[in-house]
Write a structure and sequence with these properties.
Bound molecules: beta-D-glucopyranose
Strand order of the largest sheet: 10-9-5-2-1-13-12-11
Number of helices: 11
Distance between the termini: 28 Å
Radius of gyration: 24 Å
Oligomer: single chain
Largest sheet: 8 strands, parallel
Number of strands: 21
Structural class: alpha/beta
Length: about 550
């Protein structure tokens, strides 16, 4: 069991996180959508995986134009997921089992249905205490904003208030006003960062954190953390946003010193004390994509097509990933870095891979010197389902459909794979129709199944400090087979390609295979079958 006695925030360093998309994990009341009671009912399963914390995508009141990333009330659980009391019960029951709860803080924007926005929309001019949103009355010039989804753009106000408001992602997600680095009398909507509107929003942010942390939540994943302050020179806005988080950390140090904050992205090093507890090498970043090609959900304009390293063809490279890793280690050797199997925005680990290919990928993800984040369903090798309908804003562009990584968890062979008692056509998203779809029931306790592998790897990680977050990770061979030392006494080798691979290294001398498949070591020579993997340790 995980160690909840470990106070402070250092637990995160050695933790394994389980990502739950609340819509799709377990429906307890037959309405076709997952809920908190469903998660409570499945806590023993979650514990059995060997994880330490659950990260929920946003589960607050929302019209769900963007799956809940459009919050209409930060202080209330969406009724479809249950009540605030259910969340408290979940925190308590998970805590009794050694599991912490992390919520998702979407603070760069709200929903158009948030009371703050409705109030400003109904007004005939700026709020006397300062606008919480960014409004302009003059026609926006084209140019500084881009047409990429997820970048700020002006949206014409539907009224009564005249003019335009700035959005953060979809039109239904107006950006909250945290001010601008560069002010300009000709552009009066550029409040300074310490203007009255931005101050009100910073105060609200504390109140939201206080509300949930006082209920026992362990911390937050922070959505679009470095985009609070908007400026054309992106870097200025990022730095000013980081300063807001630093101010907040100072407050947390007194009020909730144990609370962890995990940003979406990499926290810029500014010379000031870091506000966040980790960097999230999200699946959105090219270094992660260069390993897993997680873009069958869609290729974003900044993603260069390149062969993935974890691929049967064996034509990829670890270079981009390792360069980025080395840079992050250099700027801050102790900093935790999260690596996810997948998430609610990108293709699942299984996509494009046969089940027998998953061992090498999971061995890498669970024994590299990072904090692994396991996305629900990846522990049984659920597939990304292509061509699903646009449910709750899943389709960002014709080439980018996130619905396929958000389908219901596959528990067993019962109706709707055990996810829900609702009629199949009223499920949040359809279940994988493949008659051979993986399920928990079919893999539970079965030697060699993906689920068993995940449990075994996480159990080995838990009892072996050298395989956890902090022990040094030293690359021994960057190609096929990929090999790295953890600490001084553990060597991990994976061969993600179909062809066998051999490695001769002095590091293997005196080592034996502690855990693995298709991996043999003799003296300094390691031989791996196609898709083989091994965790080697010193024989006594
Ligand atoms: C979330 C997306 C969401 C976007 C806008 C991202 O960081 O992961 O799912 O659509 O922010 O809130």
């Amino acid at each position: 069991m995980a160690d909840l006695e470990r106070t402070g925030r250092s637990w995160l360093t050695d933790a394994v996180i389980y990502g739950i998309y609340p819509q799709s994990f377990q429906d307890s009341n037959g309405d076709g959508i997952g809920d908190l009671r469903g998660v409570i009912d499945r806590l023993d399963y979650i514990v059995s995986l060997g994880v330490d914390a659950i990260w929920f995508n946003p589960c607050f009141v929302s019209p769900f134009h963007d799956a809940g990333y459009d919050v209409a009330d930060y202080l209330r659980i969406a009724p479809r997921y249950g009540t605030n009391d259910d969340l408290v019960e979940l925190v308590e029951k998970a805590g009794q089992r050694g599991i912490r709860i992390l919520l998702d803080l979407v603070v760069g924007h709200t929903s158009i249905e948030h009371e703050w926005f409705r109030t400003e929309l109904a007004a005939d001019g700026p709020h006397p205490e300062g606008d919480r949103y960014i409004w302009r009355t003059d026609e926006p010039e084209r140019g500084w904003e881009s047409d990429l989804p997820g970048t700020p753009q002006w949206v014409r106000s539907p009224g009564p208030r005249q003019g335009w408001y700035l959005k953060n992602f979809y039109d239904e997600q107006p950006a909250l006003n945290f001010g601008w680095v560069r002010t300009d009398p000709a552009q009066p909507w550029r409040d300074p960062v310490d203007g009255p509107g931005p101050k009100r929003n910073r105060q609200a942010l504390k109140e939201i954190l206080d509300f949930w942390l006082s209920k026992g939540v362990a911390g937050f994943r922070v959505d679009m953390a470095f985009s609070l302050v908007k400026d054309e020179g992106l870097r200025d806005g990022v730095l000013a946003s980081a300063a807001i988080w630093q101010e907040l950390r100072e407050w947390l140090d007194d009020a909730y010193p144990d609370a962890v904050l995990i940003p979406e992205g990499e926290e810029p090093r500014t010379g000031a004390r870091l506000a966040f507890d980790a960097d999230f090498m999200l699946v959105i970043y090219a270094p992660h994509a260069s390993l897993f090609d997680n873009h069958s959900a869609g290729r974003l304009p900044w993603h260069e097509p390149r062969p993935a390293f974890f691929d049967a063809a064996g034509e990829g490279s670890t270079e981009l990933f390792l360069d980025t890793w080395a840079h992050l280690r250099e700027v801050d050797p102790q900093r935790s870095i999260l690596l996810a199997t997948a998430d609610h925005d990108f293709t699942r680990l299984r996509s494009g891979r046969a089940p027998e290919e998953l061992g090498a990928a999971l061995t890498f993800l669970f024994t590299w010197g990072s904090v692994p984040s396991l996305y629900y369903g990846d522990e049984i090798g659920m597939r990304y389902l292509p061509d699903l309908p646009n449910v709750e804003g899943a389709i960002c562009s014709p080439l980018y459909n996130r619905a396929g990584c958000r389908t219901p968890m596959q528990w067993d062979d019962g109706p709707n794979a055990g996810f829900s008692a609702a009629p199949a056509d009223s499920l949040y998203l359809p279940i994988d129709p493949d008659p051979d779809r993986p399920t928990v029931a079919a893999q539970d306790g079965v030697p060699g199944s993906t689920l068993t592998l995940v449990r075994e790897l996480l159990a080995l990680r838990r009892r072996t400090p050298a395989l956890q977050g902090q022990a040094p990770t030293t690359v021994v061979n960057p190609g096929y087979p990929f090999a790295w030392l953890r600490g001084e006494d553990h060597l991990v080798v994976v061969n993600p390609r179909r062809e066998p691979a051999t490695l001769e290294t002095d590091q293997a001398e005196g080592m034996e295979v502690l855990f693995g498949s298709g991996c043999d070591v003799t003296g300094d020579r390691i031989e791996l079958d196609g898709f083989g993997y091994g965790i080697l340790g010193r024989s006594r």
